[in-house]
Backbone:
């Protein structure tokens, strides 16, 4: 399995900042060390690819640090030159991973899932909307490609929903806490709300009764799976009560289903703000381990 990461994924933040930037180098290192996947540097995305999803003026504001007013209020990331490099590289990672998924069936960007970024602003630690950028790049080559976003981050993907509104060849599915950030939701193709501090029983009941049917009706050619781990019971912001094992079962459920249906799938990290930052890293690595095991089992089955 091929994954994408780079030293450029790390950006400098003030000490004590709640965003766990260390999860990117730490998870890539663990994935390499444990032999879970091949880790490839995606390089940097070209500006013309960003402009398909974001206003040039907004892109330039990230390059210079002269944030526009809404971004300054809502992004939550103080500017540093490494923010620009990280955003270019991490977005490229999702573009590259999506192409590999179409060719090989499964891949991952060891970052991404920045689903709160809008056309003209960043929000909620999200600078550029990597899934939208990647989808627009693919649609240049294959305009009729059916792309589905399965967003299981604890927070609704408002930026992704807005940027894909009225796009007939894209389906956005979001399962999230109803009364949580963002306060103003943008309508996805299908929004599935759970109660604040939902436990596994409620969570899996809502997932099982809605996701298979959505996939069946839309018939996607490619799935982006936002495997946010802020659903964990010890997360600072997610407001859900899933255990580490529950998250493993969630990932296994989604990825076994997409594998069984032979739908190419690109995994992106999404959010995670555990009170123990190292647990956030381990939860992301767990997602890649599940994916790696499913891919390996699939290859062994084909050989037999």
Residues:
């Amino acid at each position: 399995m091929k994954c994408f990461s780079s030293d450029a994924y790390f950006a400098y933040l003030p000490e004590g900042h709640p965003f766990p930037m260390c999860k990117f180098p730490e998870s890539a290192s663990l994935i390499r060390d444990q032999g879970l996947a091949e880790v490839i540097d995606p390089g940097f995305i070209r500006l013309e690819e960003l402009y398909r999803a974001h206003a040039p003026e907004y892109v330039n504001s990230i390059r210079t640090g002269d944030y526009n007013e809404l971004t300054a209020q809502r992004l939550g990331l103080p500017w540093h030159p490494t923010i620009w490099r990280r955003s270019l590289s991490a977005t490229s990672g999702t573009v590259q991973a999506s192409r590999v998924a179409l060719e090989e069936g499964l891949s991952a960007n060891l970052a991404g899932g920045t689903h709160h970024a809008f056309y003209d602003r960043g929000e909620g630690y999200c600078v550029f909307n990597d899934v939208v950028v990647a989808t627009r790049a693919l649609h240049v080559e294959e305009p009729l490609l059916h792309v589905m976003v399965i967003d299981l981050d604890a927070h609704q993907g408002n930026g992704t929903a807005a940027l894909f509104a009225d796009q007939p060849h894209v389906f956005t599915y979001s399962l999230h806490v109803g009364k949580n950030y963002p306060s103003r939701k943008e309508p996805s193709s299908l929004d599935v709300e759970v109660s604040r501090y939902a436990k596994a029983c409620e969570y899996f009941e809502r997932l099982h009764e809605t996701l298979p049917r959505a996939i069946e009706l839309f018939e996607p050619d490619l799935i982006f799976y936002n495997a946010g781990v802020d659903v964990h019971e010890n997360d600072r912001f997610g407001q859900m009560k899933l255990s580490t094992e529950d998250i493993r079962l969630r990932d296994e459920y989604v990825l076994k289903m997409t594998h069984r249906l032979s739908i190419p799938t690109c995994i992106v990290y999404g959010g995670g703000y555990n009170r123990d930052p190292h647990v956030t890293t381990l939860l992301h690595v767990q997602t890649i381990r599940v994916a790696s095991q499913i891919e390996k089992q699939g290859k062994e089955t084909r050989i037999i």
User: Anything to note?
Assistant: The chain has one domain: 21-303. The first strand starts at residue 2 and ends at 4. The radius of gyration is 18 Å.
